[in-house]
Amino acid sequence: MLSSGLNIAPASTEDFRLLARKRLPRQLFDYIDGGSYQEITLKNNLSAFANMHLRQRVLRDVSKIDLRCTLFNKQLDMPIVLAPIGLAGCYARRGEQQALAAANSANIPFCLSTVGICSIEELQAKAQQTFWFQLYVIRDRSFALKLLARAKQAGCDTLVLTVDLPVLGARYRDIRNGLSASKASAQVLGKLKRGIDIASHPKWLWDVAIKGKPLTFGNLIDAVPNANSLDDFKGWVDSQFDASMTWQDLDWIRNNWPGNLIIKGILDSEDANEAVKLGADAVVVSNHGGRQLDSASATLSVLPDIIKAVDKRCKVIIDGGIRNGLDVIKAIALGADSCMLGRAWAYALAAEGEQGVSQLLNIFEKEMRVAMALTGVTKISDISKDIIVE
């Protein structure tokens, strides 16, 4: 199907990225696409996958390829999770709903962000399968406990706790385009830029901003009851970053969450050990998609050390830089149990909604099947370092 605007039928994540850039207001596209500071970490993530080579094998029976895997005692059709993405409901109308539907159809997990546009309850009403919930380490524990109770009530069995935001890394794109500003004069200019930006995208304005209302953080309404726009939530969200939080402060999370607990934001083997001590069922090897510490290691580069450190005491998931099915195979070969897609599904959602996310996942599936066939393996469980060129 040819997509409107660029007149292309998307065949890759990059194609969806180009379509998203065309459709979205500049500030929203930059929010998805950009990283912190000079975006070195973001580039490192991509380069690590690009520079890893697969070992081609021939004349093996690869007539039956099986992508199925098991995660937390549930069988998935492929080792992919749709990662928590903030503001997804700004990329497409009620975007979290659409992405959830695509994930359900593909039989893979979807994780709702604390700062999603759709609330836990809104997703529960639409879900065909259980979904995951992501929580930040926030200062207001009483409100955090309320969110956990709501997630449990909605049937969520897996909590993703994001731990790599004690402070917020500066994102130069957001500053330049007016999305992020500190001084009052800059805030006024930023609002003016945003108004002009939005007005220049009438299709998005009508389909998402108007027909997709309310564009507020659905999960945070109780914390900021008088909020009418995303800007109204900003003060509360900014006040919740807690730079004093330590591993010892997280016991209350494990004590109040009976389901699967995933610690997201691990980039060091010592921190991986701390997560296991806490009682984590999995860690996500993540540098926040290159949106926090710049000049950090690529997630793929540190994955082997973290696999070794946890020593099968918990599952290991990876995100950051995964743009195609071959990247998934490379991560599995190094020992990951599953991969989280972030920007990839956000681009597809912005470009074509639920259909775009479903198409993206279909592309990933086909790429994985070809990669496995040409490296001589037929099951996810059979993938090992043997298919990597050292």
Summarize the structure.
With 390 residues, this protein is α/β, with parallel strands linked by helices. It has helices at residues 13-23, 26-33, 40-50, 95-106, 120-126, 141-153, 172-176, 184-199, 202-210, 230-239, 251-256, 269-278, 299-310, 325-333, 343-375; strands at residues 69-71, 74-76, 80-82, 111-112, 132-136, 158-162, 260-266, 282-285, 315-318, 338-341.
Question: Which helices and strands appear, and what pairs or packs with what?
Answer:
Layout: H1 13-23, H2 26-33, H3 40-50, E1 69-71, E2 74-76, E3 80-82, H4 95-106, E4 111-112, H5 120-126, E5 132-136, H6 141-153, E6 158-162, H7 172-176, H8 184-199, H9 202-210, H10 230-239, H11 251-256, E7 260-266, H12 269-278, E8 282-285, H13 299-310, E9 315-318, H14 325-333, E10 338-341, H15 343-375
Parallel strand pairs: 3-10, 4-5, 5-6, 6-7, 7-8, 8-9, 9-10
Antiparallel strand pairs: 1-2
Question: How does this model look, in words?
Answer:
This protein is α/β, with parallel strands linked by helices and 390 residues long. The protein has a single domain (13-171, 238-387), classed as Aldolase class I (TIM Barrel). It contains 15 helices and 10 strands. The protein has helices at 13-23, 26-33, 40-50, 95-106, 120-126, 141-153, 172-176, 184-199, 202-210, 230-239, 251-256, 269-278, 299-310, 325-333, 343-375; strands at 69-71, 74-76, 80-82, 111-112, 132-136, 158-162, 260-266, 282-285, 315-318, 338-341. The strands form 2 sheets. The chain has an 8-stranded parallel sheet with strand order 3-10-9-8-7-6-5-4. Helix 13 (299-310) links the parallel strand 8 (282-285) and strand 9 (315-318). The longest helix has 33 residues, at 343-375. It is globular, with a radius of gyration of 20 Å. The two termini are 40 Å apart. The model has no long low-confidence stretch (mean pLDDT 94).
